[in-house]
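re the bet — no i am not wrong, look at it urself. input seq straight from the record:
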Amino acid sequence: MTDLTPLPTPEDIRRLHERYAPSPQAFESVHGHCVIVWRIAEQLLDALAARGTPAAVDRDLVRAGCLVHDIGVYRLHTADGGFDRAGYIRHGLLGHEILAAEGLPEALCRFCSHHTGVGLTKDDVTRQNLPLPPADYLAESPEEQLVMYADKFHSKSSSPKFLTPAAYTTAVRRFGDAKADAFTDLRRIFGDPDVQALSTAHGHRLVDAP
């Protein structure tokens, strides 16, 4: 259980998104994605409970983590209406900075900085020359792991889409077999979401592996 009392409510977090979003379109993209990631996580938790194997996670903390995890993306929107795609790898740290400046606890800030891919190691940062302080950015708690995992099944690109487990496995394998294996381990823990149902419900296309 979390000692973050009280957690910000979904309404509190929505207002935070509204404050930082540079445009209604950015808000719809980022906040909408965060809500979808929560729906994915919620579906996974419900499925585990229905099978009699509930995950040992704080459900309210998972919801809050899902809803804040991408707030740093707003900082990548440029004054001229553009978007800093090259700097996207920094969105987690930028979100961490936003939440810390808002006085939110470290345990909530970490959902921003520790959800990229299936986790970034210090070696990843140095070997790939990523524009991040050299450190491990790994999901450690079950709540962090679930938020990171649920995030892998939806993309907020200009044409939002859901990804099947096979599609994400193919995508992440570009960064090495160890990354694909880490994703497989998360699948074993949390199960697979029904991305077809989510795709139909939200009207976003579904991408499967080639």
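see?? The chain is about 55% helix and 5% strand. told u. also The domain at 10-203 is CATH 1.10.3210 (Hypothetical protein af1432). so pay up
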